[in-house]
Design a protein that fits this description.
two-stranded antiparallel sheet, 249 residues, single chain, seven-stranded antiparallel β-sheet
Length: 249
């Protein structure tokens, strides 16, 4: 009995745990599947990240291109506007120069007495009477605009000339309307004129020099007190402000 016990083979390892190897194989299989799933998830996430980065780069490039095109269009538009404005200004300046030369040719000097005018007599709200001698087709003279005028002035009653731009070589007289640079009647009378228009103004003393006589440097009276003034004025062009004295002598 003892001999038999001694010669008995030892038990096989794992005996008494049936199915363990199968479980280990299943466990390894699940681990491999988990690793494959993680790897696949990583690849998908990487692909999504690459796609997102690619989209962002393309969108940024398209946005940059659109901005560049917009800037180029804006620059081209601005340049075209500058060119157009310059051409318009040059054309206006050329026309104004031609108009001044034509006026100087027609009036080598201011006429000594006011020529006859037959157009209807109109009146501003302030009391300045005016007649349109020649219609204009340019912009409208308004407060705040600086306008170059050719003019001749006479004293009503005596019809004596006291001043004329044509007697100064035809140099236009610039006035910024509404700034009090000239007598009230002049400002009221020229407001609403068109560039190119010639208008006769009849200015009462209250809108002219009132009871104050205007004298030259020698003390000679040029415009007597309480004088009603007559001006023939032509709006030549819009211009930059100029430092000039009022047309009184």
């Amino acid at each position: 009995m003892t001999q038999t016990t001694k010669n008995q083979n030892p038990p096989i390892s794992g005996a008494g745990r049936p199915g363990q190897r199968q479980q280990e194989r299943e466990l390894r299989k699940r681990r491999r599947a988990r690793r494959r799933q993680l790897l696949l998830s990583g690849i998908v996430a990487l692909l999504i990240l690459v796609a997102a980065l690619t989209w962002a780069i393309v969108a940024a490039r398209q946005s940059s291109e659109r901005a560049a095109l917009a800037d180029a269009h804006a620059t081209a538009t601005a340049n075209a506007a500058v060119v157009q404005s310059t051409q318009t200004a040059n054309a206006a300046n050329a026309k104004a120069t031609a108009d001044v030369q034509s006026l100087i040719k027609a009036n080598p000097k201011g006429q000594d007495t006011p020529p006859q005018v037959t157009s209807p007599l109109q009146k501003t709200a302030s009391g300045v009477q005016y007649q349109i001698i020649k219609a204009g087709d340019g912009g409208t003279v308004q407060a705040g605009r600086t306008v170059a005028f050719e003019y001749t002035g006479w004293i009503q009653g005596t019809n004596k000339k006291f001043d004329s731009s044509y007697d100064h070589g035809g140099q236009p007289f610039s006035v910024t309307v509404g700034q009090g640079q000239v007598i009230k009647g002049w400002e009221d009378g020229v407001t609403g004129m068109k560039i190119g228009e010639t208008r006769r103004l009849i200015i009462p003393p209250s809108l002219g020099y009132g009871s104050g006589a205007q004298k030259d440097q020698s003390g000679k009276v040029i415009i007597p007190a309480n004088a009603t003034l007559i001006f023939d004025v032509t709006a030549v062009a819009f211009s930059q402000p100029a430092q000039q004295s009022a047309p009184t002598n």
